[in-house]
Amino acid sequence: MKKTIQTIRGMKVKGERIACLTAYDALFASFMEDAEMDLVLVGDSVGMVFSGYDTTIPVTVEDMIYHTCAVRRTMTSPLLVSDMPFMSYQASPEQALKNAGRLMKEGHAEAVKMEGGRRIAEQIRLCTESGIPVMGHLGMTPQSVHEFGGFKLQARTREEAEHLRKDALAVQKAGAFALVLEKIPADLATEITADLEIPTIGIGAGPGTDGQILVTYDMLGLYEKFKPKFVRRYLEAGKEIKNALSDYIHDVKENNFPDSGESY
């Protein structure tokens, strides 16, 4: 069944949990299709797990269009959301509309995601009023990593928590259809989820959100540079791949590959 923004919003009303992951290429997108994922995010995390940067900041609109197109080619059922990269929307609502439009028109995304609260409310409003669905993102917003001094827990004080609550309400009022809450205290995420009419998608925000998302390369054990506390490894694929590569090298060096059954 095709998932739409109405499907995702309806899941909150029904109390049905929302399963989300990231994808950056056609192969992984086909896995998401077969698994019947609810929502797939082409995240700007591609800059770290795919392109090798230390942060998401170097990612461009062109990068996001390329990877979103790749995902779209083999995936149709999950809702497809594409990240708005750093400095593609912050300058003005008009800039946000132009670049969000490119991700929809050229990248074939069905929605876009923006990081920030009240300071980008007008960007969200203009896009949604123009027919571009927007997912919000609050808490540990990776594009602000230098402002935060690292990938740290956010909203730790009462003042910061109240600031985040106001941002969440502003994002909803501006027209966002859902909101990612990243790396904030679980109790706060549960409270915000109860306050909002739109679904919340947690990542490092405890079990009280309406859904969960992880970076696929993290949960499969492919990205080994660091493992956040909130990541559950469902597979140690990185270790398995390294073992397979070592076995291949050994067989080639020892002339054990190819054998007669693998030759013409």
Task: Give an overview in words.
This protein has 264 residues and is α/β, with parallel strands linked by helices. It folds into two domains: 5-233, Alpha-Beta Barrel (TIM Barrel); 237-264. The chain has eleven helices and eight strands. The protein has helices spanning 5-14, 26-35, 46-49, 61-74, 93-105, 121-129, 145-148, 158-174, 186-195, 216-219, 237-253, and strands at residues 18-22, 39-42, 79-83, 111-113, 134-139, 178-182, 200-203, 211-214. It has an eight-stranded parallel beta barrel, surrounded by six helices. Strand 4 (111-113), helix 6 (121-129) and strand 5 form a beta-alpha-beta unit. Helix 6 packs parallel to helix 8 (158-174). It is globular and about 65 Å long. The mean pLDDT is 96.
Strand arrangement across the biggest beta sheet: 1-2-3-4-5-6-7-8
CATH architecture of the largest domain: Alpha-Beta Barrel
First CA to last CA: what distance? 44 Å
CATH topology grouping of the largest domain: TIM Barrel
- DSSP strand (E) fraction? 5-15%
Give the overall shape, derived from the CA principal axes. globular
Q: How do the helices and strands follow one another from N- to C-terminus? A: HEHEHHEHEHEHHEHEEHH
Query: What is the number of independent domains?
Result: 2
Would you identify the regions where 5 or more consecutive residues have pLDDT less than 50?
none
Name the CATH superfamily assignment of the largest domain: Phosphoenolpyruvate-binding domains
The CATH class assignment of the largest domain is Alpha Beta
